[in-house]
Amino acid sequence: MTTVGILGGGQLARMLALSGAPLGLRFLVMDSVDDACAGQFAPMVVGDYRDEAALGEFASRVDVATFDFENVPAESAQWLSERVPVFPNPRALATAQDRLAEKTLFQQLGIPVPPFAAIDTRAQLDDALATIGTPCILKTRRLGYDGKGQFRIKTPADADAAWDALGAQAGKVGLILEGFVAFERELSVVAVRGRDGEFRTWPLTENWHVDGVLSASLAPATADAALAETAFAYARKLGEALDYVGVFALELFCRGGELLANELAPRVHNSGHWTIEGSETSQFQNHLRAVLGLPLGDTRMVGLACMLNWIGQMPEAAPVLSEPGGHWHDYGKLPRAGRKVGHATLRADSAQDLAATLVRVGVELDREAQVAPVVAALG
Ligand code: ATP
Ligand code: MG
Ligand code: MG
Q1: Of 101, 130, 134, 219, which has the highest C-beta tally within 10 A?
Q2: Domains of the chain
């Protein structure tokens, strides 16, 4: 009996556990809170990731460890990796945790990025504003997610407000200033790399964010094959450079037909949730196969798929469940503003059918605005 340990007990851990059940796997989840939603399906160790007693108990009960939460302290991941195999490796995790290290690696690998500068002081912010120009975004280097820890600077006059909002973080998690990319589209590559270096990607995914939070994903993206190949080549280079094992996502901006890398998520990714029903093998199943050294599954699509995120509270399920290609995922979380509480995946065999399905679901759930950009992309 193999037990997979997962650091972090959110919906990603929950979906990993659900997809690992047919493989006969057991799971142990570690989280700092006792009501983490993966705990509904797997036993838990509740404790701080920096607490060696709790982490030691976790290590003693698992055969291999992986992450649901990308901000597990790098030292804790390192400590764990000295006791049990950990995938992805702590260096890959540490690189992806720091926007500066991440963007520096992208540059070294020849992957284009928006202009950026590390910011530790107010004077550096003024200097960087002069070189990068406006609009731009001031972000915390670490610990940001769902667009948190970011301040959009529209004109140089916003510098004071940006520093008021985030300046206190400069000495703690560091800051980075990035040029604002007036992108036409956001895309992501969800990829998997096995212990033996085998590399696969799912079809390119197109994403729409609202207030910095993913709202909808469409696969395959309406992109030409050459663009997709470029995106896949960037992901492959990253996987190799980091000796990455498991699933990761590379978020990209597409502007004027060119790709610019935004960030690397060292884990299964929200823009890959559609793979559960829309692909031969889901990102969750392939992540487990990768970390266990099992053969990777085929990543080809089954039709087209659109994922809609439910933020704050769950809508009514019936309109989605009534659709032939409708699939429902309720994470079992309490409602809270801004929180990802579930998602739906709509699948169809043609772009026309998928668009029609989305229009119906949008009207019935009063979510026309959420489905509109996807319907437009489907033509
Ligand atoms: P998550 O990890 O949940 O994807 P995050 O908090 O790490 O989010 P980012 O991915 O950096 O944040 O930003 C969230 C969204 O904000 C992006 O997907 C994009 O829509 C927008 N955004 C971020 N940086 C830029 C940029 N430089 N130019 C234009 N838009 C941006
Ligand atoms: Mg992020
Ligand atoms: Mg992001």
Answers
A1: 219
A2: 3-86 (3.40.50.20), 115-179 (3.30.1490.20), 185-378 (3.30.470.20)
Q: Is residue 251 lining ligand 1, measured as CB closer than 6 Å?
A: yes
| Residue 64 is assigned to a ligand binding site | no
What is the distance in A from the centroid of ligand 1 to the CA of 292? 31
Model confidence pLDDT, tens digit, residues 55-110: 999 999 999 999 999 999 999 999 999 999 999 999 999 999 999 999 999 999 99
Nearest atom in ligand 1 to the alpha carbon of residue 182 is 29
Q: pTM (2 decimals)? A: 0.97
Rounded mean pLDDT, 314-333: 98
Using the Cα atoms of residue 237, residue 305, residue 335 and residue 32 in order, give the sign of their dihedral.
negative
Neighbours of 379 (CB within 10 A): 8
> Does 179 show up as a binding residue in the annotation?
yes
Q: What is the DSSP letter of 302?
A: S
Ligand closest to Cα of 134 equals 1
Q: How far apart are CA 49 and CA 236, in angstroms?
A: 30
Local structure of 316: helix, strand or coil: coil
Closest to 307 (Cα-Cα) out of 265, 285, 279, 335: 279
82: amino acid identity, one letter: E
- Does this complex have an ipTM over 0.95? yes
Find the ligand nearest to 138 CA: 1
Q: Is beta strand 246-255 parallel, antiparallel or unpaired with respect to 136-140?
A: unpaired
